[in-house]
Write a structure and sequence with these properties.
The chain is mainly alpha-helical. It has a single domain (2-201), classed as Ferritin (Up-down Bundle). Helices cover 78% and strands 0% of the residues. It is built from 10 helices and no strands. The protein has helices at residues 2-22, 29-55, 60-64, 68-77, 83-105, 112-120, 126-139, 142-168, 172-178, 184-201. α1 (2-22) packs antiparallel against α2 (29-55) and α5 packs across α8. The longest helix has 27 residues, at 29-55. The radius of gyration is 17 Å and the shape is globular. This is tRNA-(MS[2]IO[6]A)-hydroxylase (MiaE)-like. It comes from Micromonospora halophytica. Residues 2-179 form the Ferritin-like domain.
């Protein structure tokens, strides 16, 4: 439980850093403000998780440390070059990560399950991202192929770094996945189905 909260907390902290930087890629102040609000939500989620960890007698810094290199590597290797790549990363990249963490959270006891679920489903900006991507595709249909390739790269990098996370932790997350004899193939089918639906909603191809 503590390890999972630490992983989610560090993900939220990095998401804040990334979105705050990516907001500068926005083509106008309205869009810049929207991504800045996303960043504010992420740091709020981090603070909530850090407070819970402290209440549990854990040091947030120490609990997050094992995941630092893997998550930082993911963001370093998927740095967006423009506004549309930034929006796609916030929508598609974070979406598949949140789905996976949500699956693990379902194996926690209450109230920790609901805590993680609340944080991961703070997705008020999904509609904003979809609208941005679809509007860009309407102006130039070639954008769909470029962003579809970018989304596939995001997923590939996320899966690669997930292996590093599994190797870095103390076995607790692996045990959590295996708890209650989880059907791993079914788990990945659900993740794939969610990802496919997310891509389709934005007008992108798998």
């Amino acid at each position: 439980m503590v390890d999972l909260l630490g992983l989610v907390a560090y993900g939220e902290l990095l998401a804040f850093d990334r979105m705050a930087a990516d907001a500068r890629l926005a083509p106008d102040l309205r869009r810049r403000a929207a991504l800045s609000e996303m960043a504010a939500a992420e740091i709020g989620n981090y603070r909530r998780l850090a407070d819970w960890l402290t209440a549990l007698g854990a040091s947030p810094d120490e609990v997050m440390a094992p995941y630092r290199d893997a998550l930082q590597s993911y963001h370093d290797s998927t740095e967006p070059k423009d506004w549309l790549e930034a929006v796609t990363k916030a929508y598609v990249g974070d979406g598949i990560t949140d789905d996976f963490l949500g699956e693990m959270a379902d194996r926690l006891d209450e109230p920790y399950r609901q805590l993680v679920r609340d944080v991961l489903h703070e997705s008020r900006y999904a509609e904003f991202a979809v609208a941005e991507i679809r509007a860009a595709i309407e102006v130039d249909p070639r954008v769909a192929n470029r962003l579809s390739m970018w989304a596939r790269r995001l997923v590939g990098e996320a899966l690669s770094q997930a292996g590093r996370v599994a190797a870095a932790d103390r076995g607790a997350l692996t045990a959590l996945i295996g708890r209650d004899e989880v059907d791993v193939p079914a788990l990945f089918r659900r993740l794939t189905a969610n990802h496919t639906a997310r891509m389709a909603a934005a007008g992108l191809n798998n």
